[in-house]
Amino acid sequence: MPTMIRQLKILQFIPRWPDSISSLQIQEKLESREIEARLRSIQRDLVSLSLEFPITADESSPRCWSWMEEAQTYDLPQMGVHTALTFRMAEEHLQHVLPKSSLRYLEQHFRTAQNVLIQHKDRHMKNWTQKIHVLVPGMSAFSPQVKREVLDAVYEGILREQQLKVTYRKREAETIKEYILHPLGLVLLGHTIYLVCTLWDYENPVNFALHRMESALLLEENRKQSETFDLAEFVDSGRFKYLVGEEPLAIELSVSSFVAARLDESPLSEDQEIVSLQENRLLVKATVPDSSQLRWWILGHGTQVELLRPESLRDECKSLVAEMNHLYQGSNISKVEN
User: Is the pTM of this model over 0.70?
Assistant: First the structure.
């Protein structure tokens, strides 16, 4: 095999710092792809490549190689302008969703995209930063921060299917507790990343918010295997929708034309129906999970959404509205001012 092809493969095998790889490990990877290379040749290649590319070796024995943490990302073929614009939109969106410790894995790709757009000769690209803006629906909020070492350990635990030892502070808890976790998958809900896992020898999956982990250590032991667990089914079961009841609800809503138009584009369910009800109001029928999110959604729309059925949930909403009315009729403002 030509030297150039072998060296390109070697560059692909080298991870970004803080990960690293030895020349012997590179040789094993080459052999697994039926590429023969003597260890001495690989070592010479590494030294030669380090003169042209931002790769470096540590002082361990054997020496291990890494791309420098701030090294530019090299694309073959080179990133195009449309791809760069897509990365720009992704960067705008993800900075509202992911913690900074997660975004750092994409920083070099974002930087490459920025350079592609800046260096583009087309005069229309001159003000490209002013041509993209991402809006986040609802109240703006900052993503809770996840410790970098926690994120690294959790990612490794999921990829390698190994156990994790974590210290965790539950919401509003004063004490920190230690757990042995068997990682099953990650779920991103709004601004929060959750680790789905089992504890110790228990079999029922639970959720741990990464930002509440004070520390995380990757253990040598493999995680307990589950032949029946399916992450998609776990999510679809409603575990992240704050279920109130296990059975779905057949709901009927009286909604404004504005809400109806939005639901026509983004239905509440596959069986959703929208029919005329009266002037400026429409009737929406759908089967949805019986969840706290449903209640928040209904009440959050104020007078634009009225729940008609089921009557039990309508009575519940009436009680909540009455409590809100009592709250706003109170004299809490004068108490604060005094």
Answer: no
